[in-house]
Amino acid sequence: MEALVENRVWLDASQPDRAAEVLAFFSDGTLMNGSCGGPFRLTAWRWVDEATVVWEDVEDGGTIRASVVSVGPSRLDLIVDPDGAPLARTFIAVRPPVNCG
Hints:
1 helix, 8 strands
């Protein structure tokens, strides 16, 4: 599972009415996240078990937990639980060139 999640750029496809969120879980423990047209943030992330990742929320200092529901070469389904309100999110793998502005 790790090889499918890590070192790819994932674009949020679950909220078409908002600027798409971008996530990239790098194998060195760095997470790049942000939204198309907005600022990007770098923070630490890690696996806590074979299907759960956590990362620091740089905006409020908390921890965000996400369960990997399914993952394949082009799709990542997560249940993200930032504040006790789990939210299903679907991401698609993107490769350059991508213009999300």
